[in-house]
Amino acid sequence: MKKSLYFLFILALFCLTGCKDALVPKPIKLTCNINTFDAPISCISRSTADADKLYIGQEDGCIIEKVNNNCQTYSINSNRRIYDILEYSEDSLFVGTRDAGLKLLAKSSQQTQTYYIKNKRMNYSVYSMTLDDDKQCLYVGTSNGLFRLNLKDGSTSHELTPIQLGKCSKNCGVNKVVIKEKRLYVASEQGLFVVRNLETDFKRPVIDSLVTNVSVYNDTVYALLENSVFKIAPDGKKTFVHKGRCYLYAQGPDKDEWFISANSILYVKDGYTLKYDLPNGVSTIARQIGFMGKDFLHLACKEAMLSFALRQNSADLDNNVLAVSDKRTGDSIFFITDDLRLHLYKFVYNHPEFKSKSLGKIEGLDIVGNDIIKFFGNQS
Fold first, then answer.
1. Which of 21, 76, 273, 333 has the fewest Cβ atoms within 10 Å of its own Cβ atom?
2. CA–CA separation, 257 vs 289, rounded Å?
3. In what helix (H) or strand (E) does residue 23 lie, and over which residues does it extend?
4. Cα→Cα distances 111→41, 53, 74, 76, 77, Å
5. pLDDT in tens, 288-316
6. 242 alpha carbon, distance to own chain's centre
7. Comparing C-alpha atoms, which of 176, 245, 188 is closest to residue 215?
């Protein structure tokens, strides 16, 4: 009898342990596609008209227009670092530079117009830019404060108009400007400003200490401070969410979170946290170090751009992904899982299910060597 009870006890303990293990999230891995360039990357932005088009600003003043696997190079005829790029029209880009101010580049002619601020001329840096919803006004975050450029009715003025932040009369650096749902978010040395009313909200910061970056998701604000990240709910309640210096916070389509520090990524999904080391680190001298699109999170890491697919696992497999290709014509990518199978994934926008098709096992593939890198590097 005692033996039977002991056996039942062990069996129950085994079942409970098995159930507990089943509830523990399975280990996850991150993988990325890597593109390398001739000069360090200082900003990444995306076209407002084409979701597959990226603009990559470099330390030497060059701009790479990248559409899938095709690249076109433009120059602002200066070796100044590029801090931000904003597509204004099919042929024109606003370009924010280091110590050379704001420029408007015509891609077809590669000619530039310059914009100045009073008493500084072009001797200022542009860190961030955003257009209002009607493209009537460009807000410009600079080393000397926040400015506005009137674009209404084809205005020909080349002087930026200053906007005072807070009660302090001295200039302060503005690190990031974002417009979401008719609200202007300003991350600056004076703090974080959330502007609904142009007459009053520039005077009152929501956070009154240095804010290095800001992200907005569904009216919830994520403010990056010097050594922490805070979440600000629509009702104004502030919640501490992360300790340590972050250069970028991004949120994926499945509410997964990406905390980007100088040398690593902290990825949080479904209760599981993964630390992914970045051997060369992110470009900390850059201002706009990354961008999350519909399909990829792109990061500037010195001369390399790392692109992490937002959905990397097959719908019917639990295997981790070892490598992923660039997005190809026809809205598809290829990826390889750790069981050495090749998969084809087609993006279906605004669809709740994301499924991939297995194309079969790859024979003779060396996962220790460079075969996977060569495989994706030689695709056409």
1. 21
2. 17
3. helix 2-23
4. 22, 21, 10, 8, 8
5. 999 998 889 999 999 999 999 886 443 34
6. 18
7. 176
